[in-house]
Amino acid sequence: MLKTKTTLLNFLNDLSGNTKKHSLNLLLAALLSSVFVIIAYAVFYGLYYLIISKTSFNTILAVRFTFLMFRYLVILILASIVQIATLKVFFDPQVTISNLFTGVKTHFWRFLGLSIIINILFFLFSLPIYVAIFLFAIQNYIFSLIALLIGILLMLLFAGYIIFSPFIMIEKQKKIYNSIRESMNMASDNIWGILAKIVILIAAMVALNYIFSLFITIPFVGQIIELAAIFVFYIIFIIYIYTIYQNLKSNA
Fold it and tell me: Among candidates 94, 92, 87, which has minimal Cα distance to 33?
């Protein structure tokens, strides 16, 4: 079958359609996930402060370091649960809460493994940025700028190639390696178009963040707006990437 390119106008039409179709279900899934995350965090920090209160001065640094490591793992676990629940809504808009929990249970370990691998790879691809910070600190500005640009390009390329692997894992029930490989194959012939759309998304997010920031300092109202912004950003991001994924599948 001859591949056809999706124009920007067609992409925006698909984005609008997906927003109308999925935004309400995504909002409900996000709210349910938020309640779960808040409860989990409350338990986690409750245990943390309980242990800290009973810890001697000599061992408090070791306890804090241990909890920092556990906190990172807890964030990965909670993020995996939220993402699985979100993606299940896309591929089964009529999913019930019980089926949602079943889906999370089915995909959890594979998805957590995928998340860990993506985080490790993301760190490796972002190393030039840390080098750029070091070079800037020693006032080597030219090489710092070069390292920064290389780091940004590597991270964008990494994101472009790997970003569909969670969708593939949930929709097609693939294993970690197969999800990553299929995502890279999908992106290989369309990488520059994908990167252009990601840059547009980043620009839109920055613009929205600036608009929201104008109201965050307002007492009481600002906190509500800040919370609403988190949900808006999350839903926009997921729908946007899903639309790119959907277009690539239809043009394959």
Answer: 87
- Give the pLDDT means over successive 10-residue stretches in the chain (252 positions): 62 84 77 79 81 76 80 84 83 73 86 92 92 91 92 92 93 92 91 90 86 77 73 84 88 66
d(CA 118, CA 115): 5
8 Å CB contact between 185 and 172: no
Residue among 152, 161, 213 nearest 187 (CA): 161
Q: Which two tokens stand for residue 39?
A: 């409860």
Among residues 147, 180, 170, 29, the alpha carbon closest in space to that of 91 is found at 170
Closest to 83 (Cα-Cα) out of 43, 112, 106: 112
58: DSSP letter: G
Q: Which residues does 6 contact at the CB level (< 8 Å), separation at least 6?
A: 14, 193, 247, 250, 251
Query: Model pTM?
Result: 0.80
Tokens 């990488």 belong to which residue? 191
Q: Are 64 and 49 contacting, i.e. CB atoms less than 8 angstroms apart? A: no
